[in-house]
Design goal:
The chain has about 180 residues and is mainly β. The protein contains three helices and 16 strands. The chain has a four-stranded antiparallel sheet, with no helix packed on it. The protein has a four-stranded antiparallel sheet with strand order 6-7-3-11.
């Protein structure tokens, strides 16, 4: 069975029509990673603070104390993720290697880190280097769709403003493949 490229819903009463749609690119959220750490539960001995957020959300201050571990830093970021738009997790790469992963919760939005004070904790754990992310796993991208020969972009993979009465949900990008919606 082929993987679904596009899904969605059509409102009752929507005029009939036929549309050729190509999903050139799915919208993606930015993800960044720290350098590897041997044990995510060991206190890092770092103290400082930073503000983190994405456009359209309120940046929040994350305070780090010397007794905090990589896991504690992830939890400190996550306590504010609903307002900042940034979530964190600790990824177990191997039995002796762990990384802090920060992700934008919204697609097409880049994570911003500002107002770094004290020890630059994010530089110290290898997440940033001189104010820029050292290891970007996935860039923030907009959805790119070609509808009947017209290229459009959106910040989300759920699109309800392109065709009146039709909600589209991008499941997979397939550049060069056109699907017909009737």
């Amino acid at each position: 069975e082929p993987t679904k490229i596009l899904g969605g819903a059509i409102d009752a009463g929507t005029p009939k029509g036929s549309y050729d749609i190509e999903i050139v690119q799915k919208a993606k959220n930015q993800r960044v990673a720290s350098a590897a750490t041997a044990d995510p539960a060991v206190a890092l001995g770092l103290a400082g603070s930073f503000d983190v957020g994405i456009p359209g959300k309120t940046a929040g201050t994350v305070n780090i104390t010397a007794g905090m571990s990589l896991t504690d830093i992830a939890e400190a970021i996550n306590t504010q993720s609903g307002t900042t738009g940034v979530a964190a997790s600790v990824l177990k790469v191997s039995s002796t290697s762990y990384q802090l992963i920060m992700s934008a919760t919204d697609t097409a939005k880049e994570i911003s880190v500002t107002n770094v004070t004290g020890t630059d904790v994010l530089d110290s754990i290898g997440l940033t280097s001189g104010g820029t992310f050292a290891n970007e796993l996935q860039s923030a991208d907009q959805a790119i769709i070609v509808l009947d020969g017209v290229t459009v972009t959106r910040d989300s993979n759920t699109i309800d403003d392109l065709i009146e009465g039709v909600d589209l949900v991008i499941a997979k990008q397939e550049p060069g493949t056109t699907v017909t919606l009737e």
